[in-house]
Amino acid sequence: MHFTSFGISGKFHSVTQIFRPTFKAPTTTAHMPTQSQVYLSTRGGSNSFSFRAAVLKGLAADGGLFIPHAIPQLPSDFLSSWRNLSFQDLALKIMQLYISEEEIPTNELQDLIKRSYSTFRNDQVTPLKELLGDEKLYLLELFHGPTYAFKDVALQFLGNLFEYFLQKENEGKTGKQRDHLTVLGATSGDTGRYLFSRSCIDEVLLSMDYEAKRTWTCSFYIPINASHPSKKPK
User: Fold this and answer.
1) How many CA atoms lie within 13 A of 71 on its CB side?
2) Which of 5, 101, 102, 103 is 20 to 30 Å apart from 68, CA to CA?
3) What is the pLDDT of residue 188?
4) DSSP per-residue string spanning 75-118
5) How far is CA 82 from CA 76, 86, 125, 138, in A?
6) Mean predicted confidence (pLDDT) in 3-14
7) Is residue 229 part of a domain?
8) Catalytic annotation on 93?
9) Residue 234: inside a domain
10) Which CATH number characterizes residue 155's domain?
11) Residues 6+ apart with CB under 8 A from 116
């Protein structure tokens, strides 16, 4: 059993590990990761983590945040060649810079992105609206996700990543051999309690207190079922 936790207030905070996961980074063969696809801690105590290990651990053992060893170099023509890409296609281009083909093959990463943003009510996912054309003033709308919160842009994808990695980890395992991930979280504010509602996560259990200051405090845990990609627990 592996535990991950995070706190959410006005902005998304990094995932914080409660019990140290034992997931191992995959062995690279044909597709060696680039420096931008290997992660280290901002505090220097942990390095050479795969993307999968960084996602499942949340925070590094020394309390630091995971960042790539290097910032990837974009193609020289990216401004023109990426200009008219859809949100999903652009997300794929960017994610591939940070996730090796060995960890998530292109077709599977493309499917993860497609499923993550299929729940958004706008085909553009985060449409850019012109406010004052003469002054080149635009507004990026981040409220079209299933919970109407800007956090959907990150967390819809994160939930699918959890499920994807667990399914890979549990291939061929049965019973107690299977790995499980429980996400523990606490949040205050008006959006945190809705973060995983109607998302890819199988089950969300909520416990909420309404404080005297009229703010919500929410604690919840999310057991993620990875027994089969198309089945949810009864």
Assistant:
1) 1
2) 5
3) 57
4) PTTHHHHSTT--HHHHHHHHHHTTS-TTTS-HHHHHHHHHHHHT
5) 11, 9, 16, 19
6) 41
7) no
8) no
9) no
10) 3.90.1380.10
11) 156, 157, 159, 160, 200
CA 126/CA 195 separation, integer angstroms: 17
Q: How many domains does the chain have?
A: 1
Q: Model pTM? A: 0.72
Domain that holds residue 26: 2-223
Q: What are phi and psi of 159, to 5 degrees?
A: -60, -40
Report if residue 230 sits inside a domain.
Answer: no
Of 5, 12, 8, 6, nearest to 142 by C-alpha is: 12
Q: Which two tokens stand for residue 171?
A: 């291939």
Helix (H) or strand (E) holding 51: helix 51-57
Catalytically annotated residue among 93, 151, 168, 232: 151
In a domain, 83, yes or no: yes
Is the distance from CB of 113 to CB of 92 less than 8 angstroms? yes
Please provide residue 201's backbone torsions phi and psi, each rounded to the nearest 5 degrees: -75, 140
59-82 residue pLDDT tens: 899 999 999 999 999 989 999 999
